[in-house]
Amino acid sequence: MSASASRLSPLLLVYDLKLVCTQCCVKEQEITYRLKSVQHKCGHNVLLCKAKGGIKWRPVSRRPIFPNPNKYMACWYYVEGRGCTQHKNRCTFARSDEEAAVWTFEKHQGLDHALLCNLIAESERGTCQANIDEPLGDLLADVDLKAVCNLCSVKVNEITYNVQSVVHKCRRSLLLAKGKASDLWKLVSKRPTLAQTVCYKVCKYIAEDSRCTQHTQGRGCTYAKTLEEATVWNYLREKKMDKNELIRLLTQSVSLTPEHAAESMLRHFSGEFIEVCKDCFQEHPQKLTTKRWNDFCAADIAHAWNPVLVYHLSENSRKHVYSQVRPLPPNCQFTYCSYVIQGKPCWHTASECQSAQSEVEMAVWKAEHTGLCVRRHLLQLSQPAQTQPRKVTMYCKVCHLSLSSPESFYKHCASLEHAQLVAQDTTTRWRGREVPHNRRAELWLCERCECE
After folding, report:
1. What are the φ/ψ torsions at residue 146 (nearest 5 degrees)?
2. Which of 10, 211, 387, 405 has the greatest number of CB atoms lying within 10 Å of its CB?
3. Are 94 and 103 in contact (CB under 8 A)?
4. Stated pTM of the model
């Protein structure tokens, strides 16, 4: 069994997974697919899942970044063909039990949608065995290695790190290793060379995920902290090389350019990047307008063209997400907006909120932080997907709906569904205990509230 199949085995014991495209599958309903046999070069751009013994293949979309529960569940209010009847286009629950199971597996394994699809493709090809004849092949047969930096890794504790998928120009200042049967990345520090060590071993006194408790509180310990670190150190001693040389050999074939970064970002995010008028997009209500043949906006009242980069994701015929990709703010802390973390749209203006308002905006910011100018390439690579000229439309960011005219937009804003979603974002729910009955007489509104 290949390493990819071994890692997927807990999921494959219960479900069947299949990478398909529009040529080798038939979409019968919104979340019901069936396979068809056809000779073609598959694009592998749709992930399907079905329970063992089942007959219905269910699509698996990208897992939402917020919220992040320990276990995902299927939406109780989802009706095939109508979507979620309670939260409408704002629903963050899975559309099926199969999708919920895959999302939960991704979370527990530290995977995203792109990495999961890569593992499935590798398990089908069976080509993830290390080649001993290649450089570092004998080491890579025992452990997996990854050179990272503080942007593409998250420190869990003294020893363990999580690796996150992000497009950026990596400085590769850290070396991580994990065993073939493990899912945890361990830090590999600089090999101690003062002692004439014949074979490096793991320290007996090291506490779990911390420093050595015996040898001068860890500062004088020359033992390895983990088995992965001992394996790498012994390889370096045998080959008479240092850690920097190992990192160079590990990444010598990797040359990340802005073009490659943009291509990787478009593979990771399934939507497209477009350019719209900034003034219209920041109006109330929001409008999606493109450029005329001259330097003017295509709005009814033409004005000077002032472009802004926008990411467009269309999950179905009803739901459209348009999110602005703002310029990288100075001294960016690379945090998400508190409203967005709660699954709500940010109600601040674009210049007021200094936190990322979408996963895409965060990825572009991190790429630009490392000196990669990807915006122009994102637009160029998205142009082939734009087969028809865009019309001026109105956009409701609360309900993720695009409407063709001002009349339809104002009619939508007067609907009960829109009012309910707006109320969820603007009202504050009392989370404390109820006021005691014998103290309620002492409470009253302030004078300003009574005047209003």
Report:
1. -150, 130
2. 211
3. yes
4. 0.64
